[in-house]
Amino acid sequence: MTDLSVNLNAVAQLRNRRDLPWPSVTGVARVCLAAGADGITVHPRPDERHIRRSDVFALSDLLRDEWQDREFNIEGYPSEDFLRLCEVVRPDQATFVPDDPGQATSDHGWDIGAHGTMLAEAIERLQNCAIRVSLFVDADPSVAALAAEVGADRIELYTGPYGHPGGDAAAELARLKATADACRKAGIRAARGGAGIGVNAGHDLTLDNLPALVAAIPDLEECSIGHALTADALLYGFAETVRKYRAILGG
User: How far is it, in rounded angstroms, from Cα 175 to Cα 158?
Assistant: First the structure.
């Protein structure tokens, strides 16, 4: 079964349109977790245009106090501020993304070769706090060996080109599968007889395109889904929407 981590950035962005406390980010998280979501994902950007630092701490408290068996995933560029936040909050997973602070959303993966020293140091720093570290990467089998070199526990496949309407979904899916296959063979865990680097996926995944991805990569560890899940929740409600995605992921 693949875990579903619900990304709450869109919920926070809607709240931030007005100086009001609703929709409640923690309230929606509680609904999603009660419906079976395996975890919560947030991406606190420096300008706090959606998730705020206060949300990070409130969600951490919620998971620690009410849902100890679920996971907290914090995404961000591994700046000193981000790393310190992770060291204080101690999420289950930190996902490093190569975003410029002004980007609207993540739209490309790491050039690991060009940033290898910085990534290796940041990964080791958070792993010393018992935090699993995932790197956001493009679909390219060569990233598996590079991710292993810098010590990543997992990679998150950037599935935007696969999910974007009008793209060559079949070709993109083949690249995603090839990258996942390479990750199974890479890394310390493989050398010890394990399954290599773990593979997550996220970006523009929907109820329509998710089934083919899961069929192609049945051992996906986690899918982080926010925009489409929030859009579907406008029609079905968050609880029913979570159940629909979980059904596809094998939950």
Answer: 11
Q: What is the DSSP string of 131-179?
A: -EEEEEE-S-TTHHHHHHHHT-SEEEEE-HHHHSTTS-HHHHHHHHHHH
Tokens at 86, concatenated: 């992770």
Active site residues: 43, 75, 203
Confidence of residue 105 (pLDDT cuts 50, 70, 90): low
Give the model's pLDDT for residue 102.
63
Token digits of residue 56: 């990070």
50-97 pLDDT, tens digit each: 999 999 999 999 999 999 999 999 999 999 999 999 999 999 999 999
Residue at 123: amino acid letter: I
CATH topology assigned to domain 3-249: TIM Barrel (3.20.20)
In this structure, are residues 134 and 201 in contact, taking their beta carbons and an 8 Å threshold? no
Report residue 224's pLDDT band, with 50, 70 and 90 as the boundaries.
very high
Cα angle, residue 134 at apex, residues 129 and 137 outer, rounded to 5°: 155
Identity of residue 33: L
The C-alpha atoms of residue 156 and residue 158 are separated, in whole angstroms, by 6
Structural domain boundaries of the chain?
Answer: 3-249
Collect all residues with Cβ–Cβ distance below 8 Å to 135 and sequence separation of at least 6: 95, 96, 109, 110, 112, 119, 143, 147, 150, 152, 154, 155, 156
- Beta bridge partners, 5, equal 39, 224
